[in-house]
Amino acid sequence: MDPLSLKKLNAARGARRAIALVTDLGDGRDRVVEEGDPVAGDLGDSLTKAFRTGKSGVVEADGREFFVNVHLPPPRLVVIGAVHISQALAPMATIAGFDMEVIDPRTAFATPERFEGVLLDAEWPEEVFKQRPLDPYCALCAITHDPKIDDYPLKAALEAKCFYVGALGSRKTNAKRVERLLAEGVPQAAIDTIAAPIGLDIGASSPAEIAVAVLAQVIEAFRKREIAAQLAAA
Q1: Contact 77/91 with Cβ under 8 angstroms?
Q2: What H or E segment, with its residue span, contains residue 32?
Q3: What average pLDDT score do residues 23-43 get?
Q4: Residue 140 pLDDT > 60
Q5: Whole-angstrom Cα distance, residue 158 to residue 166?
Q6: N- to C-terminal Cα distance for the chain?
Q7: What is this structure's pTM?
Q8: What angle do CA 100, 203, 140 make, to 5 degrees?
Q9: Where are the domains of the chain?
Q10: Which CATH class for the 76-229 domain?
């Protein structure tokens, strides 16, 4: 591998950016492609698929064979609210391959006993994001029902272009949320991307069922995401 390619790979992985090493199997030359970089033709289509699925392999493009070694940042599921839904969601999200974390400044809820083995922050989201900022490979679920806690992370998630942003609450609750976000200067087009009410419409009622609906919607958003288009428009 070209030392410069290795340096680019390590830098991108350290910064949680999706990247691929593309090696021409005919002459052995390689190059590094970041998600969102313009690549024309069949190779560009193959790279788009690789970035979406996270699967490496040999592809044929434009009469040549390439090995595409793709590196995706581990997807993060950031849940605002140490509630019953997040208790049920945590083990399922971990099994599904997400780096799960829960943030809630309410210390009565955010206890290690309720979230054993889960990255838990009994802090305000504003403080946590200074240390671990959101990015396009994050999903954010705001489920405290408290605007003082939920609104900031929702705004931050939209600004960071998280691949999924969801919020718990009825349509009436969401209408009030929209008014507050608009007053904070969040564009209507961005607000419209929030999944609210949160989760797929499967008739869920219990916290565990709602957790299933939320995780299913997060997985759907991750596998159908268009991060490359978002980055190009940024």
Answers
A1: no
A2: strand 30-34
A3: 88
A4: yes
A5: 10
A6: 31
A7: 0.82
A8: 25
A9: 3-71, 76-229
A10: alpha beta
